[in-house]
Amino acid sequence: MYFNRFILLLTTLITASLVFDKKYTERTDVNGQTTIISSLENTKIEKKVEESEKLYDENKFIASKLATTARLANHIFELVSIYGIARKLRRAPQIYVLDKKYEKLIEGMQKVMPGLINEFEIKHEKIVPKTAKNIEFNVKCCVFEDLGILRKNENASLIYSTGHFYQSYKYFDEFREEVLEMVAEKKDFGKLPVDGTKICIHIRRGDFLDGQHHSTQTNFTLAAYNFILETEKPTDPKIIIMGDDLKYEQSLFPKNSSNVFISNLSPSDDLIYAKYHCDITLITAPSSTFGWWISYFSKSQKVYYQDIRVTNDVNFKKGELEPLDFYPPNWNSLILTRSGGIQKT
Ligand SMILES: *[C@@H]1O[C@H](CO)[C@@H](O)[C@H](O)[C@H]1NC(C)=O
Ligand SMILES: *[C@@H]1O[C@H](CO)[C@@H](O)[C@H](O)[C@H]1NC(C)=O
Ligand SMILES: *[C@@H]1O[C@H](CO)[C@@H](O)[C@H](O)[C@H]1NC(C)=O
Question: CATH says 197-344 is which class?
Answer without folding.
Answer: alpha beta
